[in-house]
Amino acid sequence: MQTASCNCGQLSLSVSGDPIRVSVCHCNACQKRTGSAFGVQARYPLSQVSFAGVSHHYQRVGDDGATITFEFCPHCGGNLWFTMDVMQDVVAIPLGNFADDTVHKSQLAVPNVVVYQDRCHDWVKLEGIDEVYD
Questions:
Q1: How large is the average pLDDT for residues 29-50?
Q2: What's the pLDDT score for residue 105?
Q3: CA angle, 42 then 81 then 27, to 5°
Q4: Where are the beta strands (DSSP E) in the chain?
Q5: Mean pLDDT over residues 37-59, rounded?
Q6: Coil, strand, or helix at residue 98?
Q7: Cβ neighbours of residue 41 under 8 Å, at least 6 residues apart?
Q8: Tens-digit pLDDT profile for residues 86-98
């Protein structure tokens, strides 16, 4: 069992088992959402996730036409998870939300999928990725 939380800790979730996949996404929306060069998220079956706290949501339509719902803490604004209407039984959790000094980084899943590689910053070099989608 691993726990993820927002910055203030009001909103949290726990996951059991292994993720379906861990992906690195270079799309413009993930860059804006994270304030970084890419987003990294683990996807879990909804049945493996339990939630605690109060969340608010924001929805947007992705490049492929799917509606993405971002759940965030109304106090600190941290985006703790998101879902897509085309995968209603899957929860995507940004890996940084698992950040905790008691969690060894080797316990977190390693990314095996990269999305929007064509939007990747030139200086980013990722190794060991099984699937690449432009």
A1: 91
A2: 58
A3: 70
A4: 2-5, 12-15, 21-25, 39-45, 49-52, 56-61, 67-72, 79-84, 87-94, 113-115, 131-133
A5: 94
A6: helix
A7: 22, 23, 25, 82, 92, 93, 94, 95
A8: 999 999 999 989 8
Q: What is the mean pLDDT of the chain?
A: 87
CA–CA gap between residue 12 and residue 81 (Å, rounded): 10
Q: Which two tokens stand for residue 57?
A: 């949501």
Interatomic CA distance for residues 40 and 117, integer angstroms: 13
- 114: which residues sit within 8 A by CB, 6+ positions away? 23, 24, 25, 26, 120, 126, 129, 131, 132, 133
Q: Whose CA is closest to 67, among 58, 59, 77, 78?
A: 59
% residues pLDDT > 70 (the chain): 90
* 34 Cβ neighbours under 8 A, 6+ residues apart: 94, 96
- Residue found under tokens 């190794």: 127
